Sequence to fold (44 residues):
Amino acid sequence: MLVCTEGKERSAAEYRALLEEAGFKDIQARETGSGVDAVLALKA
Fold:
């Protein structure tokens, strides 16, 4: 799923905390070298 939204900028650690709280695991943040980066996670 690709998500582009306006709003608050968050660090990889902040995304990890939000996703873990929502039941995701194996959370990975990747810099793409372009204007957008990626966060990959699996739903537990």
User: Anything to note?
Assistant: The longest strand covers residues 24-30. The chain has one helix and two strands. The first helix runs from residue 12 to 21.
